[in-house]
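Anyone opening a protein record will find just a pair of labelled lines. A complete record is shown below as an example.
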Amino acid sequence: MNRPQPGRSDPLGSPAREALRIALVTDTYPPDSNCAAMTLQRSVAYLRLRGHPVELVRPRHPCDAPNEAEDEMLLPGLRLHRDLQIGLPATRMLRKAWRAQRPDVVHIATAGPLGWSALQTARTLDIPASTEYHPPRHESWLERPLDCWLRHFHNAAACTFVPTSALRTQLSRRGYRNLAVMGCGVDSQRYNPARRSRALRRRWALRDDDLAVLHVGRFVAESGLKLAARAFEAIRRTQPTARMVWIGDGPLRAKYQQTHPDHVFLGARSGEVLAACYASADICLYPRLGERFGNIPLEAMASGLALVAFDCGAAGEHALDGMDACLVPYGDELCFIQRAVDLARFPALRHRLRHAARSAVRSLHWSAVLGEFEQQLRVIAQRDAAAAG
């Protein structure tokens, strides 16, 4: 495990004065490539860099080495699709492990069977626990029973982290307790307009003045793919040389490639390659509904794109309509399409939003976001210790 060396600059801050032994329980983690997995990996790296021993408890991945690392507990899981699996209950193993080496705090990132058994084990052993609330994907007939179960689950924890202040208010009204906001940061050095690439745009068959319209996300129904495609067709009626660029993978990708052969489909991208793709586009369409926070709007804004999104999640939390993004009333698809067309038709509006977007998210450093998370974990552990004393 690498530690900051004395006298060297540490962009994430100096090591903590008093280390916490943290058990972090999750269903998803790299090599899964979804946003939740990537954010958790960053959180674990930050906490370890700060000097906290973090034990990662997760389902075993097919790509894992046969022997688990000392700071990991790999358990059986059930894979749902390529980028997501759920852990199975593991109460007996967790009880044995945590009795042998007791964590100061247990953080449960996902509310599946593994997370439930971790929460019950922590309560049995009087270990303080925190959870993360992720708005579920569900049919309307499941909404009430699922919300009842999630409220019971999260209220059993000492603290539940939610992605936005709007969601905290909403959940508080529905009877959820002990809520704290923990959003996402954005790496403004990686996601930067300076990464714009003329060569990349040429590969997309675009000239300097042509519009590149970008959608980033998985090819699943809840990503709002149909609305993104409709909005682009409306853009192209006013800007015939515009090009739609899709980044992501998923079960619906083949269908969209077949029905839109003139669009650019890049598949999944990450790191510096993804950053160059963002910066080389002009407009980002983010038609996803719901209160999931989502890194994509922040990455697009940091890259200097003109964003069209519904007024919820990360966009609703950090953007101002007409100032640094186009925010659309929740679920208003016709308005979403019209705002996308406005950005295509009026270059002055587009350029103004692109310039302002980066400034709006410049202060969202990961070190600040994760520092608040670290402090909350410390408060939870200390509060429990004080109660015990």
